[in-house]
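Good morning N.,

You mentioned wanting to compare the apo and holo forms, so I went ahead and generated the holo version with pyridoxal-5'-phosphate. This is what I fed in:
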Amino acid sequence: MNVPFLDLRAARSELRAEIDAALRRVADSGRYLMGPEVEAFEAEFAAYCGNAHCVAVGSGCDALELALRALGVGPGDEVLVPAGTFAGTWLAVSETGARPVPVETRETTRTMDPDRIEAALTPRTRAIVPVHLYGHPADMRPVEALAARHGLHIVEDAAQAHGAAYRGRRIGAAPSTAAFSFYPGKNLGAMGDGGAVVTADAALAGRVRLLRNYGSRVKYRHETRATNSRLDEMQAAVLRVKLARLDEWNARRAAVAERYLAALAGLEGVGLPRTAPWARTSWHLFVLRVRRREETRRRLTGAGIGTLIHYPVPPHLSPAYADLGYGPGAFPVTERLAGEVLSVPIGPHLPAEAVETVIAAVRAAVRDAAA
Ligand SMILES: *Cc1c(COP(=O)(O)O)cnc(C)c1O
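and this is what came out, ligand included:
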């Protein structure tokens, strides 16, 4: 039995009739941008998160970038980001003209280490972008305390954390500002690109609305220089169908994770993801640490199990940021994790027998790689 890393057709199958109806409704409406579907989705997603405003945009990267720009972040500013994250977090920051300043990873949660933030501050620091990586919330309480003490903005990168919660409060809930992605593979995924800024700050929401639409509130009256980054009506209609399933699908992800955790516990040479007592993870990814990763991965591929590495090269070591001057060893925890992490299939549509196949294959691959 082959188990692909992710097969989005299963989600499509489960919702076929509803998605077809939603797409037909938009096609027949003659209204393809900035219409009723986007408006309804924004209201529904804001309510889901427990926040006042949602502004839908073209992607998760745009959501981060436009939220930062709306807060006035730009050239000459510094923004603290995790060293261990998807490059998109950094790229959104650098697209504003600001400089991403990495903060080392905390090994247990694999998110930004709050104890390392203070040392990264300079007089130019304007904002912090914690990332809820793999769906596990960053430890926000110390970040919020530090941001308040130094007058810094926080924009959470919630691209992997739809439905996750920190100390009983859903990610994106008031009073926070969070950027979400609706990339197809995310927990709430469109059939194309999409993103949103969720915030309690009405003025911020208003500025993002301006920035996503040519800097214009009234047609052909441009108040500021801006871009075009909109969620279209088709994607909004699809997302409305899927939002109604998000909690149930996240619960199915959690069930897969529970089974992996039980079945792989104590396996020599394998580290399992840990969930902090204050966290409810969205289980966007199930990420093992594997001592002999390359050999193990090769064996899993041979056994028909799809795996991915999230992420093989930390942004500070990628060519895109060579000019920042970080070399190997600058962020040892992040770099060690990058050399060991291995993501195995997880999702709301992974059949129970596929989960068992993955478990057996991981056990065999780890054993053979050690031999
Ligand atoms: C997916 C992702 C993004 C970017 O979202 P896009 O919609 O692909 O632009 C940013 N940060 C993280 C952590 C992500 O996983």
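The chain is about 40% helix and 15% strand.

Happy to go through it together on a call whenever suits you.

Best,
F.
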